[in-house]
Amino acid sequence: MGVNPISAAIFTAFVLATLAITYWANRRSVGAKDFYAAGGSITARQNGLAMAGDYLSAASFLGTISIFFTLGSDGLLYAVGAVAGWPIALFLVGERLRNLGRYTFADALGFRLADKPVRSLAAVSTLCLVTCYLIAQMVGAGTLVQVLFHIPYSPAVVLVGALMIVYVIFGGMVATTWIQIIKATLLLLTTLVMVVLVLYRFGPDPDVVIRTALRMNPDPERFLRSGRLVADPISAISLGMAFALGPAGLPHVLMRFFTVKDARSARQSLSFATTLIALFQLIVILLGYAAAALVPASGLPGGPNMAAIHLAGALGGEPLLGITAAVTFATILAVVSGLTLAAASAVSHDLYKHVWKSSRATEAAELRVSRIAAALLGALVICLAVVFQHESIGFLATLPLVIAASVNFPMLILAMYWRGLTTRGAVAGGVTGLVLSVGLLVLTPKVWVGVLGHSRGIFPYEYPTLFSLGGALLAALLVSITDRSTRAARERQAFDAQFLLSERGAEPT
Description:
Layout: H1 5-28, H2 32-37, H3 44-55, H4 58-71, H5 75-84, H6 86-100, H7 106-109, H8 115-149, H9 153-202, H10 206-216, H11 220-224, H12 233-245, H13 251-254, H14 263-294, H15 307-356, H16 363-387, H17 393-417, H18 423-443, H19 445-449, H20 465-482, H21 486-493, H22 495-504
Helix pairs in contact: 1-9, 1-15, 3-9, 3-14, 4-5, 4-14, 4-15, 4-17, 5-12, 5-14, 6-14, 6-22, 8-9, 8-15, 8-16, 8-17, 8-18, 9-14, 9-15, 9-16, 10-14, 12-17, 14-15, 15-16, 17-18, 17-20, 18-20
């Protein structure tokens, strides 16, 4: 493949357009509320589109299609799983979190629990989770630029990281939101065009696409049989739990609840986002089988992670390949910007302002720390993306869901719904979930063997969610129940006020 001039032109146009949005957002942002939450001025539909954009990442497009391309019907687990967690976030988290918080989900945790311990834990879990998520996006971006422009992988990753840092440092949530809206719209339109071309080529019956994929596969029976993605029931249950519970604990998604004016708008945002995500995943299922039917399995530039891009070339030639590549690149840039902003706000708002400065930091100092944190995180992720270059994007993107389901989700749910939770219990549960999820992920065969080069994995399963979430809940329950301190009694008594505020919201002023 030579350099695609259409891709180059669209890449350049998108980068220039997003930099213009960043410049406009920088002039508009006048304080912490604008930087973190866009001043609460985003409408419900805009926020829903941006929220869908946050989740429809390189893993949703490149990763899921690559799973279908390599493993066949096992890709359904990713496609369906990507939708499973959003109704839980809609009904259990959205409105209550919006009523209790300001900028991050730690605001809600600190309502009746001791502020410093829970904020510290929430910030550390956010940094671990976001780092894992960013690795998946940066691997996709680096591979994409490498394949299309014949740039070595490492400089390509540095380029993407530099753009990400610029968006966050100078634009904040306003720029990130509008980039997400543009990107989500372009991604949905591009995939719809690809679906139309698939149906034009194969006819209106999707079964024809699947039968063609079977004929192209050297082992058709294995292509339709599930079980190759997760080889044992424990891993399958753990992956399903990560998909179902993880979205309600993703910090860059939870931040979006604070960009709208009230809880009703937060609920509407989630409803709109869930609809868009479900539509997109239905499209991806068809495109996954189409990739298996049309894209050659051997000698693919960029490997299976680039199957979606080569499918676009097979359907629409160089023009569609260029457009799809540019939109995918836009997808990655937008998602990494939102992730980096979530991590930077955890450092500046939770750790710096509330823990280190005991809420006495000025807005200017807080924003300065946030921008420094974004730059440092970008540098770290660039280095890690080089290490994880050859890993599947789909697998990498499930790692943050495991952490979110094991740490943030149980802390939030227990804090908002269980009167008995105490600070000691929340910290014990959160630390247990974080240590088990991160530690066991490192010890899985995918990381311990595939990345670190050892002969066999210490932890036998692909995903540890069943153990890490179970351990987190057990630790939180046991420690909270046995906590007889005076502070614990006050925290239990404060539940009624918290519950009332989470249901009604603050009184209008």
